């Protein structure tokens, strides 16, 4: 996994040492000041994992991440557990307390690897999901799912004829959907790639049932989407 460190120098050096011992991690950036960390996060590039120190001076890291168009995979580091709840509300992979030991670091990385690993194969069961509707579970075939929309602490599954609202997070559902069929194109939207009709500067057009619908396209997701579409038509 490609990873980046954003932390005070002492923590940066320690994490760099730990990462060097892991064959599963590839350190592609190490930043010890708030401006560099902010710039790296705002780019929205494909980084598999961020190690972020909540005590970086001059940067309210948790609120800054909330403002991003996407939610990065993060292992937070802090000298206190007072921000742990808020961090996990942002779907943090893990939350490490200082002083960070290698054993605890290794446990967090193992969790990240399991969280990140794509499914290598799919069977019939993986082509469908069950959605709670009232007191019942309703089977939804993934090919019928056009797009998913986030509404605060809920997500809405949209088909061409029905919609289902459940209490869930976008990060969690994104990791359960087959990446070859679905893609995150905005902080609040995941779409079925086969339903995309056209891509514009800040929105794309999706075929939903017999109608065309405009879905916002986040700037930080645009390049990844275009690369995926390029691979589709080659």
Describe this structure in words.
There is one protein chain. It is elongated, with a radius of gyration of 19 Å. 30% of the residues lie in helices and 33% in strands. The chain folds into two domains: 2-116, Rossmann fold (3-Layer(aba) Sandwich); 132-233, OB fold (Dihydrolipoamide Acetyltransferase, E2P) (Beta Barrel). Strand 4, helix 4 (84-89) and strand 5 (94-97) form a beta-alpha-beta unit. With 234 residues, it is of the alpha/beta class. Mean pLDDT is 85; it is low at 118-125. The chain has helices at residues 9-20, 34-43, 61-66, 84-89, 102-116, 170-176, 219-233, and strands at 2-6, 26-31, 49-53, 74-78, 94-97, 128-133, 136-141, 147-151, 154-158, 163-167, 182-186, 189-192, 196-199, 203-208, 211-216. It has a five-stranded parallel sheet with strand order 2-1-3-4-5. A five-stranded antiparallel sheet has the order 10-9-8-12-11. It has seven helices and 15 strands. The longest helix has 15 residues, at 102-116.
What is the compact description of this entry?
The chain has about 230 residues and is α/β, with parallel strands linked by helices. The protein is about 30% helix and about 35% strand.
